[in-house]
Amino acid sequence: QVQLVESGGGVVQPGGSLTLSCAASGRTFSIYAMGWFRQAPGKEREFVAGIMWVGSATSYADSVKGRFTITKDAAKKTLYLQMNNLKIEHTAVYYCAARHSSNTQYGHWGQGTKVTVSS
After folding, report:
1. What is the distance between the terminal CA atoms of the chain, rounded to a whole angstrom?
2. If we measure between CA atoms, which residue out of 108, 119, 84 comes closest to residue 6?
3. Strand, coil or helix: what is 31?
4. How far is it, in rounded angstroms, from Cα 66 to Cα 96?
5. Is the dihedral of CA 56, 51, 7, 83 positive or negative?
């Protein structure tokens, strides 16, 4: 099993920045890729960004390209999401997730961290 714990959420003003962290533990050697997802009030959960656990290939939702950056520290088993120039519509619960191969879904999820963008 892989355990994921997010942190770093909070309240930020429009135009501000926030960095989310996700600490992984357990069978982390079996992780193929990790990602960030978000679920805004009244909406379905959606993919935000992903990164290979071995290597550095990344992918982003079109809506966050150029604004959000996903990185990892493999030695610390920690995933990050740097979010810049935040907008009110970025308000959501952000989830960290992990999967074991390119052929599997993201099967491990954190509890989520809430990001509120408000003036």
Report:
1. 40
2. 108
3. coil
4. 20
5. positive
**Residue 33's pLDDT is what?**
95
Q: Record the tokens describing residue 80, joined without a space.
A: 């990050």
Q: What is the pLDDT of residue 54?
A: 87
Scan for tokens 């966050």, then name that residue. Answer: 64
Residue type for position 40: A
Please report the pLDDT score of residue 28 as a whole number. Answer: 86
Q: How many angstroms separate the CA atoms of 40 and 115, rounded?
A: 10
Instruction: Kindly give the parts of the chain with pLDDT less than 50.
Output: none
Residues 2 and 31: beta-carbon distance below 8 Å: yes
Inter-residue long-range contacts of 52-57, CB under 8 Å, 24+ positions, other chains counted? 53/28, 53/98
- Residue 102 confidence (pLDDT): 84
d(CA 105, CA 87): 29
